[in-house]
Amino acid sequence: MFDVFIFFVCLVLHTVEFQKCGLPHAHIIVWLVRNTSHPTPAFIDQFISTEIPDPQRDPLAYALVAEHMMHGPCGPSHETCPCMKNGKCSKKFPKPYQNETSVEDNSFAVYRRLSNSRYIEKGNTWLDNSWVVPYNMGLLKKYQARINVEWCNKGIFIKYLFKYVTKG
């Protein structure tokens, strides 16, 4: 999957900032060579996943998603989580299940999240696909770190991202 990602890359713009705790945090914009103004669900799914991998077929992928790409647990029984605002998760987790990736009218991608009975235990809570942060498997395996990957194909979002890339 990572090789497919590199094949389509045209231009990369990035910046690294340091969080309050001193850890580096990067904002990266990647432009693709191919026209992506009307992406198909299959095209987006080549780059972004929000599902727990099969631990028998790819134990490394399963371990990396478990370690780096699970949100929470948060919610009413975890009110002290940093993401909790007014009794709800500010990141809108858990996300609803979705049979197919789609791009909404507001141009946000809603990624496929199947209810496939795969779970990861975190704390004393079992988390399923509704708790997975969007990721690219190639990047996850290469860097073995939390890399939140989002689909963006509208100018207004590029402007928003440029704010982060050019600040500081």
Strand fraction band? 15-25%
* Strands, total number: 8
Secondary-structure class: alpha+beta
- Please outline the major beta sheet: 2 strands, antiparallel
Q: Overall 3D geometry?
A: globular
Count of runs of 4 or more consecutive helical residues:
5
The average pLDDT is: 84
Give the strand order of the largest sheet, numbering strands 1, 2, ... along the chain.
Answer: 1-2
Tell me the radius of gyration: 16 Å
- Low-pLDDT windows of residues: 1-7
Helix content: 25-40%
Polypeptide structure, described:
The structure is a single chain. With 168 residues, the protein is α+β, with helices and mostly antiparallel strands. It has five helices and eight strands; from the N terminus they run αββααββββββαα. It has a two-stranded antiparallel sheet. A two-stranded antiparallel sheet has the order 3-4. The relative contact order is 0.21.
Give a nutshell description of this structure:
With 168 residues, the protein is an alpha+beta fold. It has five helices and eight strands.
